[in-house]
Amino acid sequence: MMRIHNESQYIHKLVAEGEHCHQDFKFEISDARKIARSISAFANTEGGRLLIGVKDNGKIAGVRSEEEIYMIEAAAQMYCQPQVEIKSQAYVVEGKTVLEVQIDEATIKPVCALDEENKPKAYIRIADENILATPVHLKIWQHHKKKEGALITFTGPEKLLLEELAEKGMMTLNQCQKACRLSRNSTCNLLAKFIRFGLITSVFEGHKFYFQLNEE
Q1: CA nearest to 161, candidates 195, 204, 138
Q2: Which of 132, 153, 184 is the last residue of a domain?
Q3: pTM, two decimal places
Q4: What is the DSSP letter of 135?
Q5: Do residues 177 and 111 both lie within one domain?
Q6: Between 32-44 and 66-77, two packed helices, what is the crossing angle to 10 degrees?
Q7: What are the pLDDT digits (tens) for 89-137?
Q8: C-alpha to C-alpha distance for 80 and 100, rounded to whole angstroms
Q9: Domain span holding position 178
Q10: In angstroms, rounded to a whole number, what is the distance separating the alpha carbons of residues 152 and 194?
Q11: What span, in angstroms and rounded, lies between the C-alpha atoms of 92 and 200?
Q12: Based on the domain organization, do 157 and 195 belong to the same domain?
């Protein structure tokens, strides 16, 4: 049985922060798969917390049943690949129960959430949104898994891409592929290498990912 703490001041302090890259409010848990997306996003980024029983506007609604707690556990264990260890703590706030769920950043990425067709999809957390990871993110995580160093050469495709980025400033994945004249997979791999070496960075604007030269 989960121990309930009467520390409303702590929860009010968290709620006052609003939703951000490390915190998400959930009014209710009605779909374990949707919660799995949030768990995936936090695990693939910098970790974070879910506050269950809190509306988007910060109003305390409270957890309605213990079934919601079980659904969170199901989301972490049944709908996340690999399974995610979560830490849950219940608090009494304004006579209602608010559940804090902590998700640590994963040491091995990606953590995927299973969709309605049981297909694994990885998410990342940007500001207060869970965003589907791009093929470039997947390549970056693959690179991090490799123990050996990565070799990068500056032949035709590399030079073409860097020159185009210098001229245009920001480019989409499709534009990068067109510039370097490589396959989709090879373009993603090249962008992942450039990001790993700090040559370029990814930017999320208008619900699209762009790539640009790293000013640093």
Answers
A1: 195
A2: 132
A3: 0.90
A4: H
A5: no
A6: 50
A7: 999 998 999 999 999 999 999 999 999 999 999 999 999 999 999 999 9
A8: 19
A9: 135-213
A10: 8
A11: 47
A12: yes
